[in-house]
Design a protein that fits this description.
The protein is 35% helix and 19% strand. By secondary structure, it is of the alpha+beta class. It has four domains: 3-208, Histidine kinase-like ATPase, C-terminal domain (Heat Shock Protein 90), CATH 3.30.565; 215-350, Ribosomal Protein S5, domain 2, CATH 3.30.230.80; 380-470, Rossmann fold (3-Layer(aba) Sandwich), CATH 3.40.50; 477-633, Heat shock protein 90, C-terminal domain (Four Helix Bundle (Hemerythrin (Met), subunit A)), CATH 1.20.120. Helix 15 (564-574) packs antiparallel against helix 16. The chain is elongated.
């Protein structure tokens, strides 16, 4: 065996970043992706060059990974175009050049068939190997097979050898700490992660281990629903079926294919890094693509495949530029178009999935003006409304719930309305207030999602005529009785006396006490109102201090003087007598004070205003009060 040449590998730092062993790639496992990608490129090159008549035509492309446990070697064998001695010197020894780039200059037909830089990607093998050999035979006529070897230093050796088959074998002599890569399960896992959808068959010791044929590279007309669902379950096992999906396919002004899925939102959804898998020519690159898609679309799942997304030298990270932002805008536009089409063609299905997709849409609208313009007419709210209005044609019914848009809601308001939108954020804690509105025929929007606390002010800022009023911020004026009360000799009415009773009992100047006659069979004896702007200021303060909003110190306590309990309180107070000269009050007057406090406690309890440490005191006071009332009855 004659030695043809010995020398030193040339690293051209003026053309690329310095290639330093183990420094370019963050993960050692990347070597497998790079070597398989190189093999795919070699097979595609042979196919194209043979069409041009410049090399021998080969059989069906094939990549075989061979494990040798005794020698601790891992071999990547392909039947691609191979390399001549001169090409070895140029593409391996001079790592500044890219064989893919030069090749495309000569055979410019379809750039999408080539993955990247053979010389640079090949050197990732030294992250796991103490020695690497290349045994190759070019498909060009009359080529001599050669063997290249290197121990990881700048020194290499090229020798002539015997090799019958055209193609390339890359043999890695693994370092001891990297022996995990001779385990078949490890190789299969990495192939599944990085190379599963490559267009060439990949074998491990003669068994095919990749799926091939990525659905996103096909036309949507070629796929059925089951094909989309099958891909989703393969990529994201044990996560159920997707809600819907969007098939992306464009070649201008950039090349982009993909399938994006709307998952069912859970508390584990990733709003920071995302779960969309980025591919480049069917090679997995990253599952963190926050630089590509807008933040509000990060919880989507699926695949984006593009050769026009700029990657760093190791293809492990994205580089943001104008193209990346343009691709993100394109994806957002396609998502909006899909949602608009679904609402138009199948409004019931749209309403069924609304609760799951609404966070995407609402956050997207607030963060992206263009997206907001596209989706503003398809934003839904569930609504509570009078039975006489449930046949309105613009309502969407799904799972016994009614959904409406803002414009549809406004169209059902009375003509003299000031575009005031009544809404409820918690059907349980705001139940009393909600019932007062709905019992009078008012339509109430349900805004129980966390994002709605920010979305409602945003809607108001876009339309100055809109005014959102929460059910517990005021009482429907139609419920208030306007009958004038008689005044006593001191110029005070019964309501004034009742207000004084409550005020003396609570002894808190921060509480505004109102006495009103509230109509309705189920009207509560008392309730707490939180004026809209005051409550919003309190919520913002809580958000800034990273605490739960709680009940603001300043609030309105409304007492319903038409309720039997309040009527009894007035009568009880009227019968209270001073029993001695020291000014001590009677047991009856003390009892009226306890009832007043009980009314306030119950109102606080209904809005979640009692802190955990106040619950025990409330229980004690409640038991004592019931006991005193029982004594009067028995």
């Amino acid at each position: 065996m004659s030695v043809l040449e010995e020398g030193q590998i040339q690293i051209h730092t003026e053309n690329i970043f310095p290639i330093i062993k183990k420094a370019v790639y963050s993960d050692h496992e990347i070597f497998l992706r790079e070597l398989v990608s190189n093999a795919v490129d070699a097979i595609n090159k042979r196919r194209m060059v043979s069409i041009a008549g410049d090399c021998l035509e080969g059989e069906e492309g094939n990549i075989n990974i061979i494990i040798n446990r005794e020698k601790h070697t891992l071999t990547f064998s392909d039947n691609g175009i191979g390399m001549t001695t001169d090409e070895i010197k140029k593409y391996i020894n001079q790592v500044a050049f890219s064989s893919a780039e030069e090749f495309l200059e000569k055979y410019k037909k379809n750039e999408d068939g080539f993955i990247g830089h053979f010389g640079l990607g090949f050197y990732s093998s030294f992250m796991v190997s103490s020695n690497v050999e290349i045994i190759t035979k070019s498909a060009k006529p009359n080529s001599t097979p050669v063997k290249w070897s290197c121990d990881g230093s700048p020194n290499f050796k090229i020798t002539e050898i015997e090799k019958e088959d055209i193609g390339t074998d890359v043999i890695l002599y693994l370092m001891e700490e990297e022996y995990e890569y001779i385990e078949p399960t490890r190789i299969k896992t990495l192939i599944s992660k990085y190379c599963d959808f490559m267009p060439i068959k990949i074998h491990l010791d003669n068994d095919q281990i990749n799926k091939m044929n990525p659905p996103w590279r096909k036309s949507s007309n070629e796929l059925e629903d089951k094909d989309y669902i099958e891909l989703y379950k393969y990529l994201y096992p044990f996560q159920g079926d997707p809600l819907l999906w969007v098939h992306l396919n464009t070649d201008y002004p950039y090349n982009l294919q993909g399938i994006l899925y709307f998952p069912r939102i859970t508390g584990r959804s990733d709003w920071e890094n995302g779960e969309i898998k980025l591919f480049c020519n069917q090679v997995f690159v990253s599952d963190s693509i926050k630089e590509v898609v807008p933040r509000y679309l990060l919880p989507l799942k699926g695949v984006l495949d593009s050769t026009d997304i700029p990657l760093n030298v190791s293809r492990s990270a994205l580089q943001t530029d104008r193209r990346v932002r343009s691709i993100g805008n394109f994806v957002a536009k396609k998502i909006a178009g899909k949602l608009k089409l679904l609402k138009e063609e199948n409004p019931k299905k749209y309403a069924e999935i609304w609760d799951s997709i609404s966070p995407f849409i609402k956050i997207g609208a607030m963060e992206d003006e263009k997206f907001a313009e596209q989706v503003e007419n398809i934003i839904l709210f569930s609504t509570k409304l009078d039975a006489n209005k449930k046949d309105e044609k613009d309502l969407i019914i799904s799972n016994d719930k009614f959904y409406t848009t803002i414009n549809s809601y406004l169209s059902r308001l009375k003509q003299d309305s000031d575009k005031r939108i009544i809404y409820c954020t918690d059907e349980i804690s705001q139940k009393n207030a909600l019932n007062l509105w709905t019992n009078q025929g008012a339509e109430v929007l349900m805004t129980e999602a966390v994002v709605d606390t920010q979305f409602i002010p945003w809607l108001e800022s876009r339309n100055n005529e809109l005014k959102f009023v929460r059910v517990d911020s005021e009482i429907n004026s139609e419920l208030e009785e306007d009958n004038k009360e008689l005044l006593d000799k001191d110029g005070e009415s019964g309501s004034d006396h009742l207000r004084n009773i409550i005020k003396d009992a609570l002894n808190d100047e921060k509480i505004t006490i109102k006495v009103q006659s509230i109509e309705g069979d189920n009207a509560p004896p008392s309730m707490i109102l939180l004026p809209e702007q005051m409550r919003r200021i309190n919520d913002i303060g809580a958000l800034m201090e990273q605490r739960l909003p709680g009940l603001p110190d300043h609030h309105v306590f409304v007492v319903n003087k038409k309720h039997v309990l309040v009527e009894g309180l007035q009568k009880l107070k009227g019968s209270a007598l001073v029993i001695n000269s020291s000014g001590d009050t009677s047991e009856t007057e003390n009892l009226s004070k306890e009832i007043a406090i009980h009314l306030y406690d119950m109102a606080k309890l209904s809005v979640g205003g009692l802190e955990p440490n106040e619950i025990a005191g409330f229980q004690t006071r409640n038991s004592d009060l019931m006991g005193k009332l029982m004594k009067k009855v028995i």
